[in-house]
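Local shape tokens:
==================
===
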Amino acid sequence: MTAARRRPMLRPSPTRRALAALPLLAVLPSAGRAAPAGAIDQLRAFLSQTRAASGEFTQRVAGGKGAVPQVSSGRFVFQRPGRFRWVYEKPYEQVLVADGERLYLYDKDLNQVTVKRIAAALPASPAAILFGTDDFEREFTVTELGERDGLAWLEARPRAKESQFERIAIGFRDGLPAALELADGFGQTTHLRLARVQRNPKVDAQTFRFTPPPGAEVLQER
């Protein structure tokens, strides 16, 4: 069943950039803990110390010259490896849920659900770095970028040629990811910032389960 109301196709769908948004789950720094010097070492420490996190995000997508930036915001929770819930609240309501095997993308206005296999959706994507296993360097070539805007930055370039992202930059502060920039092959750059983050909260297993709403159109991508 299709939705009774559809928005103009000119609006970029946040869910189509969801894999860019999903990896930004940072945690608040612990008092008295010395952060590793390099961004790559900070990423390794983050992965080894963080099983789950929750918080809020702001996402800004910039296109070519003259394009109006698209800004959205919402909240997230994740549990490694491969489980997360990423909810866009403004300006449009959309939900992404990964249960470890499948990724569900739900557009409330269209009443449409797209289902993908995690194995096909996450490799060589930013989500694979912070939602997957600790072996991120198998999928990416990673280099240090130095200091900028008070953050220590690294750059990750996917080894897979079919990745939709050309480069991924992650900025760290005090041993924790604080910002992320994603450049794709279409000339767009996605900037993400995090806020009100909690590290290793108790997470209900139901958080990562998704049942399509009654009447929603369900599209299975193979």
In short: Confidence is low (pLDDT under 50) at residues 1-12, 18-36. The chain is about 10% helix and 45% strand.
